[in-house]
Design brief:
With about 300 residues, the chain is an alpha+beta fold. It has three domains: about 35 residues; about 150 residues, no CATH class; about 100 residues, no CATH class. Helix content is about 20%, strand content about 30%. It is built from six helices and 20 strands. The strands form five sheets. Strands 3, 4, 7, 8, 9, 10, 11, 12 and 19 form a nine-stranded mixed beta sheet that branches. A four-stranded mixed beta sheet has the order 1-2-5-6. Helix 2 packs across helix 3. The radius of gyration is 23 Å and the shape is elongated. It starts with a helix and ends in a 5-residue tail after the last strand.
Length: about 300
Amino acid sequence: MSAMIIKAIIDMSNDRKKNRQNSKYMDDFIQQKMRKDYPEIHNKLLNERVKVNENKILINNKKQNLRNIDFELLPVFELKEEKPTIEIYEDNKLLRRFLIDTKKENPDLTGQFFHSSIRINRNSSVQIDGIISDNSKEYDENGERIRFQPFFLSDKDEMNKSLIGKGMFQRGLHYSGLISSGNIRLICICDFCSSSFSVQFYHAGFSEIQYFYSDNSKETLIVNYGEIENLPFQNQKVIDENKILEVENKLSKTKDGSFKYYNNFCCPKCNEPYINFEENKYIRPNEYYVNFYLNEKPIKYNKKM
């Protein structure tokens, strides 16, 4: 073991002893100290924890000592296909494959670059997001942003299972108290077929609208506040299901059935529920982002419909 590593361990051990009464904050303190005073050690551990090889993210989750440290890597991916994929491996096992579908206004990503942030957290969660640019050195903050669905590594797989059918906030695709900007698109992973699919959204609260998905969520209907009597608001604490039925009876029919307040938001590949509102009714009032598939647009309510 090098003299530098031995000194770092002694220093951090002494810091922990001095601040034992504040042990709640010690892990953060030690990580900051390691990055500042021992960057070579931090970079060595980072290189052991995660590597990038072309479109593959390779995570080492075998070493216990690496699990207690937050890591962030900022690679730039060169995109070599019209619709490229990013693959995440844990100890050589494929965990997730994210397909980056293209927007109508940018139909071919070949030759462009994805400036990314890969965060592997102490709770074994993995968060990835970034911005697409036609320049490998820089990007536009207002450019095309992508947020991949966060997930947990195998040592916390029970957390992945607990999120099946849950909403965008619980899955970490939106954050309570922080507004997701309109230039972000989400890439979700189906809990059933494991396919990825891209989702766009509006902030329904700020837009003062309520939304309703069709039976298979191929269509999304939006209704302005006040257009229908007893229309529920976003974040409404008490939902009267009799009034919900009255509202639903005033909505138009869809290609596949009916627009309903508790209809699920489904995977477009296999039609299984992604956000299962039918079984998790309690989350519906607080899911205040209205979702629709990439390159699609919601339908606006019209009394004549």
